[in-house]
From TrEMBL:
Gene3D superfamilies: 2,3-Dihydroxybiphenyl 1,2-Dioxygenase, domain 1. Keywords: Lyase. Residues 3-127 form the VOC domain. This is Lactoylglutathione lyase. One of its GO terms (molecular function) is lyase activity. It holds the Pfam family Ble-like_N. InterPro entries: Glyas_Bleomycin-R_OHBP_Dase (IPR029068), Glyoxy/Ble-like_N (IPR053863), VOC_core (IPR037523). The keyword Kinase does not apply. The keyword Iron-sulfur does not apply. It comes from Novosphingobium humi.
Length: 136
């Protein structure tokens, strides 16, 4: 079996969050979705589980941090620089925030950071390994 990751995120409005992630290029897997959660697929190995706050509390009693804090930044690879730009434009147009940190363009690598409507931080990046400078 292929190893997979399911990133679980608490959301305040499941419908809004689902629409946001669809706008970024995720697809919904209805097999693992219901009225309290939505499984949003990025690739065969990466999915994001959007969970209402009530559903989240089934799994943990730890508090949900405010949308203004960050514990992690989740990075998603894109096929082209233009895809990074499109993802940030879609974030801004669908209730999130684009460019929450400075854009980074190193020539061989390009990234932009965004936040979803609940404040979860994502980094969309493109990298050309063949153009990476020697020595990292």
């Amino acid at each position: 079996m292929t190893k997979m990751i399911f990133v679980n995120l608490p959301v305040t409005d499941l419908s809004r969050a689902k629409g946001f992630y669809e706008a970024l290029g995720f697809t919904n897997n209805p097999q693992f979705s219901d009225e309290s959660s939505a499984c949003m697929v990025w690739s065969e190995a990466i999915s994001v589980m959007l969970l209402t706050h009530d559903k989240w509390r089934v799994f943990t009693s730890r508090p949900i941090p405010p949308a203004t804090s960050s514990e992690v930044m989740l990075a998603l690879s894109c096929a082209a620089r233009e895809d990074v730009d499109r993802m940030n434009e879609a974030a801004q147009a669908h209730g999130g925030q684009a460019d929450i940190n400075p854009v980074q363009d190193l020539g061989f690598m390009y990234n932009r950071n965004l936040a979803d409507p609940d404040g979860h931080v994502w980094e969309a990046f493109w990298m050309d390994m063949a153009a990476m400078p020697a020595g990292g």
